[in-house]
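Supplementary Note 3. Input sequence used for the single-chain structure prediction.
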Amino acid sequence: MFTQVISTLKPVTRHIALIWNRDSNSIKHIVEETIYQLINSKETNEEPKIKKSHCTMRALKYWYTEHCEPNEPLVIIITDFESSSPAVLRDFILILSSYASTMKFILVFGIATTLHAIHRTLSYDVTSKLNVQVFHSPTQINILSDVLEHIVFCTNIPFKLTGRAFQLLTDIFLFYDFSVENFLHNYRICMIQHFYANDIHSLCCQPKKIKSRISSLTDDNIEDLKKVPSINWYIRKLQKETNEETIENDDFKEILTQLLHKFHRYMHRFVIMLRCMHHLMSPLPNSPMGKQLREFYTKVVYTNDLKECQEYKECLQLLGFLSKTELIPKLNSLLVIMEQSDNTALTKVKADLQAHIATVEAASLDVEATTTDILSTDKKLNRQQLKERLLKMSQTHSRSPYKQAQLDVINFLDETFCAFLINPHQIAAHEIFCFNDGNVAKQHIKGSLRAAIHTGLNDPQVYLNCKCCKLENDDAISSTLPDLSIIYKLHLESRKLINMYDWLQAFLIIVDPKSGAKEQRDVDPKLQARFTQAVAELEFLGFIKSSKKKTDHVKRLM
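The predicted structure, written as discrete structure tokens, is reproduced below.
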């Protein structure tokens, strides 16, 4: 963040000092560090123009008159205002203010809480020297929205995060750390899991590269592609329509090319219509579908049929309560969003929507009088006839032309959204572009540390991937295992208290099988050192601790 601030201020001035909390312990340190950075520019690799011990305000004044233009600002950024010493800041600001007539200073305070922190920290005689102006950095929620806007909801990026995987990443951000950096790390992990899982995922590329990628596929890759569930289902359906038993590899490549291009067109329409629905429904009262675009995306990719979503139904009902002055600007804004695309299907939707908007604009708000039969007291009706007459009258409503036009355009939008916002998992070849395996992502993002340690110590071959550590079964203990692994497996066989002598003898029998099962009184110092080191490492990992009851025993903790 501070790097971005510095890059923004560089066109204004090249004299900027960045003061961290460690440099503001005393007035001497903060003055020396500030003047050292202002005089010695970090952009050049030249030798320092001045030593830090010579950095005084008098030296800064002399340097300013020699090298700076009049009124050229000297920017001092104090990164953590709340953690800095109030006394040091007070003296520092007063010193700078005494030189304000000859040098122009701009102080930038990094405040994590509120502006009141300045008035709580500094007294009035100090704040009176400052001309305070406030600027805010975007919230983490808004930063995440911008990130998603350029990676997940971007039509130019073929890889898409959907389903449980997308919800897992957003849940970790919202409920745990609020860290956009961690979100991007987790996103990269999902990409790695997707692209390294299989060679066929290399087809997740830009449309112009599809043909070259397909031509480089091997026969094994083609067989793997034919086993992909959605592609397999599409091929079977095609075979039933053409009455062909098998499809040659060349024909399959042509079909696959069409499927990949079709998915690209579908995802392009999907993102555009998702933006339209978000722009139309997010400002509604109580926001049933949510306010953020990611909330709309989550609901759409989690629902097999949009019509089954209760929140979507509520939004359609709320649209029916909009006035004419509220509805028309919303519909015109949808046209602006659709202008970003030259897709043929979206062009037709745009033309139909323009016709509906013209109808809504021309519609009158006056209710037309409708002629209904009035029940005559002279005519006798039986119960069935009376029931039919009342039902017919109840179904006859007096609607204004605007109300009818409003219902028509809402029905049109409903049909359009349901037609274009189909769950990606219902489209053939979605496995190539979409990653939705939340369980795989969770194992790498929120791994269980204790379980990983147990797996590594109980079966080192899982992580070391060496033949010498391969075990016939989980209970086996081989002499080729690392010492820590042997000690760990032996400690699992013990009770709450472990006798150190018995533990050592069991360790010696495994690592030195030539000695047989005899008790060894005179232990090789090297083997004893290996045992001692392994026990110390196991204690460091938190599996054992020394026992106060018996000095020659240790206590199991887990």
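The chain is about 55% helix and 5% strand. The first helix runs from residue 2 to 9.
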